[in-house]
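pls design
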């Protein structure tokens, strides 16, 4: 969801999240409840989502969460040292 929420606001809602490619990735096991919370927060903050999507994490998403860097960036960095 590409929104500009205050990190403290998302933390107060109890969500595990990272900022990523100009948006926010929110990790959840209850996607419908999360969507409802974020919709309420958007309305309260007068924010209009540019994009909203649900998906299972890809390998690249997991890599980013673990390392803080894109897989593509890491591969390019490693190629420079070979």
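designed seq:
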């Amino acid at each position: 969801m590409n929104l500009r929420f205050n990190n403290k606001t998302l933390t107060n809602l109890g969500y595990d999240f990272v900022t990523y490619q100009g948006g926010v990735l929110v990790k959840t096991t209850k996607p419908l409840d999360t969507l409802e919370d974020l919709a309420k927060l958007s309305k309260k903050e007068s924010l209009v989502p540019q994009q909203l999507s649900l998906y299972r994490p890809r390998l690249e998403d997991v890599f980013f969460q673990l390392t803080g860097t894109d897989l593509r960036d890491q591969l390019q960095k490693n190629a420079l040292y070979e």
